[in-house]
Amino acid sequence: MHQKHFVPDAVGPLTGVRVIDLSRLVAGNMVTHALSDFGADVIKIEKPEGGDDLRNWKVKGIGTYWKIYGRNKKSLTLQFRSEEGRDILARLLRSAQVVVENFVPGYLEKYGLGPEWMHSVSDKLVILRVSGWGQTGPFSHKPGFGSLTEAMSGYAALTGFSDGPPILPPMPLADMVAGVYGALAVTMALRHIEVGRGGGQVIDLSLFEPLLSVLGPSGADYKLTGQVPERVGSRSPIMAPRNVYRCGDGKFVALSAAMQSMTEKLFQAIGRSELITDPRFATNAARVSNVDTLDDIIAAFMADRTLEEALELFDAAGVTVGPVCTIADLLEHPFVREREVLISLPDSDMGEVPMHNVVPRLSASPGAIRSPAPRLGEHNAEILEALGLSAESQGLLKANGVI
Questions:
Q1: Contacts of 179 (CB under 8 A, 6+ apart)
Q2: Helix or strand run (H / E) with residue 256
Q3: 243 close to 322: Cβ distance less than 8 angstroms
Q4: Which listed residue, 52, 121, 215, 248, has the most CB atoms within 10 A of its CB?
Q5: Distance (Å, rounded) from C-alpha 34 to C-alpha 39?
Q6: Strand partners, 41
Q7: pLDDT (tens digit, 9 = 90+) per residue, 314-368?
Q8: 146 near 179, Cβ under 8 Å?
Q9: Whether 52 is catalytic
Q10: Which parts of 195-306 fold into alpha helices (H)?
Q11: Among the residues of 49-98, which ranges form H helices?
């Protein structure tokens, strides 16, 4: 894994865009993480006591989530519901182009801090509102963690095996998917202003809808068949073969032969060319209907070979297979190392911290990691001084619990 250093002066395509991040936990942080990696000046507003709850997701006492998704941001502690805090927030909004928040709908309005007030401060603000279920509808008032939307969206019902329960993902998948959509929405709204088609606007982003949107044509399939799909483990309900197989050394290989030509290469590679014309396997539809038998044939072949032997054979034959990797495997994998998918950066707690590189890769205006995730309130003085608040004023604000 390559060791890298921060590039404080890096310029990205979003350099000059200031984002006020009022969010907590994952989805909002994912939005601003994506924007900040490409140059946006993200001011993370946190509770004076404890800060963003993402800081509390710890392993061996260290907030690893914060170290990754807090990078490139500045931390300002601010109780913005107070009169003094509201004034500071207004000053910040006048200097910004984007606001990100993920309070339960109605919370900001209750304190007179909703989009109407924000746009009265600056009518060019792009306001991204992240919530579990959206700003409207019968669930809008409900809190909505990603786990609930992963269950309700249909994702969990599709995940697992037919003889077991639905399975939730072991990571905040709904939040991450929504975060990517949110970053895209912000850049589209900024483009809307840039080309002169209008001013600021409000983006209503739920956790539920983005995840549902990536589940494929499930509604159309149900209309056509009238059947709710069963959980099929690592198989695909619409193409075969596609599964995970155990090799003779106990390691696993994933195989997907999504095209007819790939399936034929597979049959040739395992020494079973006759299967190409076998009526049970000659077409994709036939293979799906006979998937148990087909998987038994492939599984028996894999069981007689180590993972390395299987990969070497299938790579030579041009068959789409890959190892099932753990993070320990990835940290040493030549693909990951040579492409610098994971990098290691200096860290005050760990010495160095492995993290994913900037995604995606732009040839002319790449992103960069300019700074580590900030300590709580690390940038209070820098930000408040720029707003014209003296050291004495800051001392009073701190004494009153505003910052």
A1: 26, 27, 28, 29, 30, 31, 33, 34
A2: strand 252-256
A3: no
A4: 52
A5: 9
A6: 18
A7: 999 999 999 999 999 999 999 999 999 999 999 999 999 999 999 999 999 999 9
A8: no
A9: no
A10: 208-213, 218-225, 260-269, 284-289, 291-303
A11: 64-69, 83-94
